[in-house]
Each structure stands twice: as C-alpha cells, then as structure tokens.
Write a structure and sequence with these properties.
Layout (H helix, E strand, L loop, with lengths): L9 E2 L2 H7 L37 E2 L2 H15 L3 E8 L6 E8 L29 E7 L2 E8 L23 H12 L4 H12 L9 H18 L1 H15 L4 E6 L5 E7 L1 H10 L2 E4 L3 E2 L6 E8 L5 E8 L5 H14 L7 E4 L3 H10 L4 E4 L1 H5 L4 H8 L4 H14 L6 H8 L6 H4 L11 H10 L9 H28 L9 H9 L2 H14 L2 E9 L2 E8 L7 E5 L6 E3 L3 H5 L32 H7 L4 H19 L3 H20 L14 H7 L29 H4 L25
Parallel strand pairs: 9-13, 13-14
Antiparallel strand pairs: 1-6, 2-6, 3-4, 4-5, 5-6, 7-8, 8-12, 9-11, 10-11, 11-12, 15-16, 16-17, 17-18
Length: 729
C-alpha cells in the first residue's frame, strides 16, 4: 500500500517486520490459512474487549482480530476485506495481515470499457484510507497499524447488514435453504422464512441475491459431478436399501443418459391391486433437459389417483415407447393391464399394439370432444347401444355434409377406441379420459419445475408419492374409525357399508336411491331368461334392457355399469359375485410374495441418520422455546449446549451406517430391473419435446386452416398493422 495519506499511520516495528518476512503480494484471503466460521456477525472472543482498536492491542489468534475488527466495522457503519498478507520466507506461514475498508483503492479501468454492452455498475472504490494491520509476535498477534478516518458516509449499524462484507449464509441457513429449494419454494419465500426465524429482515445476515448465488453454486457443483451419474448412483444405492425398488436406464453410444424408468415397492404392489386400468400421458415436461415426464397412473379402491411408476423419455418415438412398455411390463412381474387410456398419438399406439396386443386401448374422450359441436356430443355421450350411435352419427354426417371429411372418417374408423357405446362392456374403473393423469401433473407442479435437474427430480418425485400415500393412509384411518351414514332401512345398504370403501359406498348409495325412480316392465321370457324394459317413472327414454338369468342372481343391463365401473346399477340386491374386490376395504389384503414388503423396509430405516436428526430437532425445538422465556434460562441453556457440544466433539465415535437391508438374493434376481454400466453416465442432451405431437396425431381441419393475415388500415398492405406501418415512420 502507498504510505502517502492525509491520515497519520501509526506503525509499530514495521521495519523489523519487513526484515523478518517476505512480502508476497498475492492477496491471500485469511480464510485460506485459518478456519473461520462461515457465519455472519461474528463477535470477538472476549466480551471485555475495548470498543476501539489501538496500537499494541494483542489477540490470541488471527481470527480473533478479524472478528473484532469486523464487529467494530459493523458498529461504525462500514465493511472490511483482507487487503494483503505476508508469509514467512522459511515455512510460508502467515506473519502479518492488513484489513481495510471495502472502499479502499480505486476501480481498475478496463481497456475494453468502450465495448461494454451492459451499463457500468456504480462506483464503490473511492480511495478510503481506513486500515488495521496485525503482525505475529511470538505466539500472539499484535496491532501494528491503525487508521480511523473514512472519506465517505458511514451507515447506521442496522443498515450495515446489507453490505457485502457483513453478509453471508450460515451453515444452519444453508441447510434450511436447500430443504426449501428442493421443496420448490422460491427465493422470495425462502427469505421470508429466514426473516421469520431471525426476528426480522435486518437480522437475517444475507439478502435474496446471496440465497440465489448459494443455490446456483450447488447446482454448478452438481453439473461438475455429473447430473446423470448422481441419478445412477442414487438408483444403485436405493436398490441396495430397498430390494423392491427397480430401475432401468438407457445409455447411448456417447455414454449419455437416455430414457429412464424406476418404480418402488409401494407402486409395484399397488399395480398388482389396481393395475387393471392404466392412464398413460406423455405431455408433461418437468426437468432441465426437456425430457417428457411419463407417469403411469390409475385409481385405487378409494377412487384416489395413484402412481404405478415414473419414466423420463429422451424422445417420443415408437422405439422409445416400445422400450418403455417392455420395461414396465417386466417390472410389474409380467402382468399386462386390461385397459390403457392414452392421447391420440400414433407412435404410442404402435408401441401398444406391439407390446400389449391383448390390452384394450382407449383414446382420451375429453380431447376428442373438444373438436366436436353440440350435436356430436349428444351422439357420443347419450347413446347407449352401438346401433343408436351409428344411426345418430349417420344423420349428423348427412346434416352437416361431412361425408368427404377425411379427418372425421379417420376418427370414425377408430370409434371402438373412444366411443362410450363401444366401450361400455370394457372395465375402465369409471374412467374415460386422461384427466386423472393431468391432475397428477398439476399435483407434481408443487414439487418440480422446468429447471429441475434429473437427480433432484427423483427426490421430488418421492416426496410427491409420499404425500399421495399419506392421503391414502388418512382415508384408511377415517374409514376404519367412523361409520357410514345409511339413508334407507334396506339391509342391502348396510351390507354395502360394511364391505365398500367410503367413496365406493357413496356411489353405490346413489344407485340405490336411483333405483327407486325406475320401473320395470317384462318384455320377453325365453327359456329361463327374463328380459325387462327399465325406464324412469313417467318417461319412455332413456330405455334400458335388463336380462335376468334363470336363478335371477346374474343380470345384464344395456348401460353396462357393472362391466364398465364394477358397481351395480339400479340395485335390488347385492350378491357376493357382484362385489368387486378392488372397491372394497380389503382390496389390499392379498400379499404379493414376489415384491418385498415396503412397510418392513420402512421400519428398518427408523434408526437411520435422518430419522435420528429429525427426532433430535423436535426435542431441541421444545427446549429452545423454553429457554427463550427469560435471560436466566437462556444463559443456562447456552452453557449446557456448549458443554454438550464439546463432549460430542471429544467423543471418538465410529459410526457404521449399514446401507444394506437383509435381502433374498433369489428374490432380487427375479424382481429387479438393472442397468449396469462400466463407464460414467453423461448428462443427456437438451432436446425439444413435441408436447402432443403435431406431426403424428390426427388433426381437426380447423387446426390446419391458415390464419388470416394482418392488413394495415393506413396503407392497405398485408403483413403489418397500423401501429408499425412503414409509411407512418
């Protein structure tokens, strides 16, 4: 530093210092030599320290001096930084340090300043001369120079918390920030939580930009380590801990991650109970690589959405879908679903025909209905039999002269995949659209976003699944601890309340009430079969045909509600063979031997480090609340805490956390889907997604119509409007 200054510089034995050590002008930060806590507002080690520094002032350690001057600067209204250090010529140990005001010196002028695109930031360096210097004297550190004066306005102690030199993110704050960030909480709300915990914004010790920088640094570190490799390592670790967890990952010739599939024991077991109808939707993007998120979902015995597995696809080709369906079927013990509901995607349809030839493929009715007018909607929804649909469809086609419409003809040729009249006899658990899947997508938005990395996505997915299963358990407890309200004296209603889940019972109850509104008229008797015409009292339509077999315990109705949903329509009795297990309270009573029990694994993980930490945090929170009631209690708590801290540090504890859960090797071999790679898995390329692929799905003619070109009202030319007309300019 230059010695020419308007302020007197008090220098103690500076000549002697220069002869004893080498002045290495390398601007080494003090934190490179000492272990300085990363917290802010660090106070001096001694509470009896003088308020003003002075020459010959002695400190035990260099960090004590730094903490003291930092606290002094905070009170006075400025921030400090390490100006330069001196190292010993012999062993390169630290011998002297100078701390200066952050406004010391002047900005370095770049030669490329004329080429600058962004506006130049405000000036911070204005040549302030405030400084404190310390040197090592034996085992102590002594102040050998001190300049008080500043050539700028000093802030109030409250305002100094915004200065960079007094800002920082503590270890406790870092953990809280990452927890909130992983849960999808934005920066502004993270700052609100930190402010609440700190007793005000001025006590937080950092600003929103510091939080963003910290999160950004963690993300950059993940990219350096390899996002895909972290995901692969997580899968391997998870599989060791949970033998029921399965995964499969594709890797291309360059070692980059391709499509990725995984499912835990809970989801695989749930599929064995409720996998008769599956919704398959590939229109949701939730990660930084724009890889479509493809959830396989369905409905459980409580009519709640349920996830069977999760997939990230590298693209939306028939080959990718074929790989996905084969992997999915293998993970689900080779069991194919009875019905699958998807969007109108040709690549997806091709893969389903190849891999699931015996599965009924339905198209999402909701998306198709968006393209139709009111007359078509009535034809599709209100017709009961296929003959009724065909007659009404033909009349509408003639009425609107649509016989030559190729798009409509193509859709009509596949009517067995989307028209309810053709699908009423196929069990679909009451579903005809992919809206349950889209509802799940909306649910996932609380956990993931388009900037989520794949290694973070899998953790957020697990949190979302945990939340879903928690809701299911909540409903289980509610059903078992309460009694359904019956509205009739019929014994059949009491029987239904005993076996059905609460939601299923409410549906059954509605049908029981509706049966009182209908009347039956015998039509024919052929042998032992009796056919009745069922209509609402005083009405002739809609007309339902009910056929009873000779024993009158087997019935068929043209509405096919039993076949479509698994619950009887217009109930007069409840034979046991008409109680579908998947809607009952005991739907999950059957044990799936080929999949390890998840509850057993959960109980084995109760003593892992995370569970121990959470338990301690809950206990500590109660103690902290009690200690904050008075200064005496707080002092007692602080002393006890320091004592416990020292004892824990002194303990030589060999913690061996067993990652392996006792497993059956034969069982793992049968149930797991493994993808082992000898090389490091590289991050996938960022590729654009098709959404609902325009190039593959059938289009409504309205979608292909050319949009009307703009016409300028001034010059009458096309291609622009009057607000940007060239003639006006």
């Amino acid at each position: 530093m230059a010695d020419s200054s308007d302020e007197p510089i008090l220098n103690l034995d500076s000549d002697e210092l220069e002869t004893e050590s080498v002045d290495i002008q390398c601007d080494v930060n003090i934190e490179d030599y000492v272990n300085v806590d990363d917290g802010v507002n660090v106070q001096p080690s001694s509470s009896s320290s003088p308020l003003e520094p002075f020459i010959s002032m002695v400190f035990e350690e260099v960090e004590d001096a730094q903490a003291y001057y930092k606290a002094y600067a905070r009170r006075k209204g400025f921030a400090i930084l390490t100006n330069h250090t001196r190292l010993s010529r012999d062993d390169k140990t630290l011998r002297a340090v100078d701390y200066v005001c952050t406004r010391e010196g002047f900005r370095w002028v770049s030669r490329n300043v004329s080429d600058r695109i962004l506006p130049e930031p405000a000036e911070t360096k204005i040549g302030c001369k405030a400084i404190i210097g310390i040197k090592k004297d034996g085992e102590k550190w002594v102040v050998n120079k001190f300049v008080v004066g500043h050539n700028h306005i000093l802030l109030t102690p409250r305002s100094t918390s915004f200065l960079r030199g007094h800002r920082g993110v503590t270890k406790v704050q870092k953990k809280l920030i990452m927890t909130l960030n992983e849960s999808g909480v934005p920066t502004r709300k993270i700052m609100s939580v930190l402010s609440q915990d700190s007793g005000g914004e001025f006590n937080v010790g950092c600003i929103g930009k510091d939080v963003e920088n910290y999160v950004g640094s963690k993300r950059r570190k993940i990219f350096e380590e390899g996002d895909a490799q972290r995901l692969y390592s997580y899968f391997l670790d998870r599989q060791l801990k949970e033998p029921g967890f399965v995964f499969s990952m594709q890797v291309d010739n360059d070692g980059c991650m391709g499509s990725c599939f995984w499912a835990d024991a809970r989801s695989r077991t749930a599929y064995q109970y409720f996998g008769d109808v599956v919704i398959f939707d590939a229109t949701y993007v939730t990660n930084i690589y724009k890889m479509p998120f493809v959830p396989f979902s369905g409905v459980n015995h409580r009519h709640q959405n349920i996830m069977f597995d999760c997939v990230l696809l590298v693209n939306e080709t028939a080959e990718s879908y074929t790989w996905l369906l084969r992997t999915w079927q293998e993970a689900m013990l080779g069991r194919a679903t009875a019905t699958i509901i998807t969007d109108d995607d040709k690549a997806m349809a091709k893969a389903i025909v190849e891999v699931l030839p015996n599965t009924t493929h339905r198209l999402c009715l909701w998306h198709i209905l968006q393209k139709f007018q009111k007359d078509f909607r009535h034809c599709i929804h209100e017709t009961i039999t296929t003959n009724e649909f065909e007659q009404e469809w033909a009349l509408i086609v003639v009425k609107y002269e649509l016989g030559e419409n190729t798009w409509l003809q193509n859709l009509y040729s596949r009517r067995d995949k989307w028209v309810p009249a053709y699908l009423r006899s196929t069990f679909c658990a009451g579903m005809s659209t992919t809206q349950r899947s889209e509802s799940m997508n909306k649910f996932f938005k609380d956990y993931v976003r388009s900037s989520t990395m794949v290694s973070d996505f899998v953790h957020q997915y697990e949190k979302a699944i945990d939340a879903r299963y928690f809701k299911e358990r909540e409903k289980d407890v509610q059903t078992k601890s309460t009694r359904a309200i019956t509205k009739t004296p019929f014994k059949i209603e009491e029987e239904a309340a005993e076996v059905y889940t609460r939601k299923s019972f409410m549906i059954f109850q509605d049908e029981l009430f509706n049966s009182l509104r209908y009347q039956a008229k015998k039509l024919t008797v052929i042998g032992e079969a009796k056919t009745y015409a069922v209509t609402a009292h005083g009405k002739e339509i809609p007309f339902y045909r009910v056929t009873l077999e000779g024993d009158e315990v087997h019935a068929t109705c043209t509405c096919h509600m039993w076949e479509f949903m698994g619950i009887l329509c217009e109930v007069n009795g409840l034979p046991q063979h008409y109680v579908l297990d998947r809607w009952t309270i005991n739907a999950k009573a059957r044990i799936i031997l080929d999949i390890p029990c998840f509850d057993d694994q959960l109980s084995q993980r109760q003593d892992d480090p995370t569970m121990r930490k959470n338990k301690s945090m809950l206990q500590l929170y109660d103690i902290v609340e009690l200690a904050s009631q008075s200064a005496e209690k707080h002092k007692h708590f602080t002393l006890a805490l320091e004592k416990v801290h020292k004892e824990l540090l002194a303990m030589e504890e060999d913690v061996e956390y067993s990652q392996a859960v006792p497993t059956n090797d034969d069982q793992i071999g049968r149930s797991q889907v493994l993808s082992n790679f000898s090389q490091t898995v590289q991050d996938p390329p960022r590729v654009p997604t098709k959404g609902r692929p325009k190039s593959l799905r059938s289009k409504n003619p309205k979608e292909t119509q050319t949009t009307k070109k703009k016409h300028c009202s001034i010059c009458k030319n096309e291609g622009h409007a009057k607000n940007n007309c060239p003639s006006v300019r």
